[in-house]
Amino acid sequence: MNFNVEQFASDNYSGICPEVLEYMIKANYGSAPAYGNDEWTQKAADSFRELFEIDCEVFFVFNGTAANSLSLAALCQSYHSVICHELAHIETDECGAPEFASNGSKLLLAKGNNGKLTPESIESIVNKRGDIHYPKPKVISLTQATELGTLYSIDELVAIKSVAQKYKLKIHMDGARFANAVVAMNKSPAEITWKSGVDVLCFCGTKNGMALGEAIIFFNKRLAEDFAYRCKQAGQLASKMRFISAPWLGLLETGAWLKNAHHANQCAEYLENQLLKIEGIEIMFPREVNTVFVKLPEQVIKNLQEKNWQFYTFIGVGGVRFMCSWDTTQARIDQLVSDIQTAIA
User: Fold this and answer.
1) CATH code for position 324
2) How far is CA 58 from the centre of its chain?
3) Residue 1 lies in a domain
4) pLDDT of residue 90
5) Measuring CA to CA, which residue among 94, 90, 189, 205 is closest to residue 146?
6) ∠ CA 286-264-248 to the nearest 5 degrees?
7) Among residues 143, 261, 118, which one has the least CA distance to residue 202?
8) Are 145 and 192 within one domain?
9) From CA 171, how far away is CA 43, in angstroms rounded?
């Protein structure tokens, strides 16, 4: 039976990269203490502290929705609110989980070009109302890279940090494609997180070559008080935690997290260049990581779907999103471009 599909829908579709699989197999030899009290988990947490150049608190959960929702809940009371972009994943694709986990903290939506919040858009929401009948702004949630595949520069992050400090707001970062951002920006993980004002980062492993698993990293350790209890209550404390933490070591110790992200970004760049050779093709947003948004005629979209190409069209901005991953190949890209050319012709 052939389970393969021709896909550019998501880096969630990709399999487990070899380095991760190798470390999972290593962790499978013998027994180890449960619930994160094993050497793999301790070593993975220490690796994050070394990577980010800071003594941070590290927690491992199964998926990104849990990571975002639980970390935001730790930053908010139920009467608080979270300022995010109108296209943010916590707003469009997490089924109300942030509000659920926080017992009601409201998401306040801001517009912004290329999927990014600005200091002005944040400040306008903070100052919209200050009465007791309105949920008090408490957190700014940023996505790096954004849902549109764009990046916050360090200057942009620092400007948002200034607004956060002015109004005593915390900064949460959804790092679903954080590795891709690090590679594209050629900056250290520390520079684009806590050194730029980020209090907590949700670092995705799944999209970078793991089977499952996210790391929640509290740079402000005070905010992590009792967070382990929150994870347990939410069903996110893995009994065999080493099978989440050991794969992280497979990414970090071997450098595969950067290699995988670099490959995915390069593939997207190649795809964009090939698409631009086709007359009438319009790239919708600056391509900065592993995502290409393109406008295609409806008939072309239908023809591609009939050929079993998988991609998303519901992101909320129109057009088609093509996503490259660690295992995308040039041959697959060439075939997609060829089918697009044929369909347009």
Assistant:
1) 3.90.1150.10
2) 17
3) no
4) 96
5) 90
6) 125
7) 143
8) yes
9) 27
CB 315 within 8 A of CB 88: no
Whether residues 65 and 209 fall in one domain: yes
Q: Helices H, strands E: what count in the chain?
A: 13, 12
Pairwise CA distance, residues 266 & 290, whole Å: 7
Interval 268-327: pLDDT, tens? 999 999 999 998 899 999 999 999 999 999 999 999 999 999 999 976 666 899 999 999
DSSP H or E stretch at residue 257: helix 256-275
Whether 195 is in a domain gets the answer yes
> What is the spatial distance between Cα 119 and Cα 209, in angstroms, rounded to a whole number?
34
At 71, the amino acid letter reads S
Angle (CA) 233 144 221, round 5°:
45
Query: What are residue 59's DSSP bridge partners?
Result: 216
Q: Which domain holds residue 113?
A: 18-252
**Could you tell me where the DSSP H helices lie in 102-146?**
119-126
Considering the domain architecture, whether residues 94 and 240 belong to the same structural domain is answered as: yes
Is pTM, for the whole model, over 0.85? yes
Tens digits of residue pLDDT in 170-214? 999 999 999 999 999 999 999 999 999 999 999 999 999 999 999
Distances (CA, A) of 72 to 218, 321, 338: 11, 28, 44
Q: Is the pLDDT of residue 1 over 70?
A: no
CB 181 within 8 A of CB 149: no
Q: Residue 3 has what pLDDT?
A: 54
Whether 191 contacts 201, CB under 8 Å: no
pLDDT band at residue 26, thresholds of 50, 70 and 90?
very high
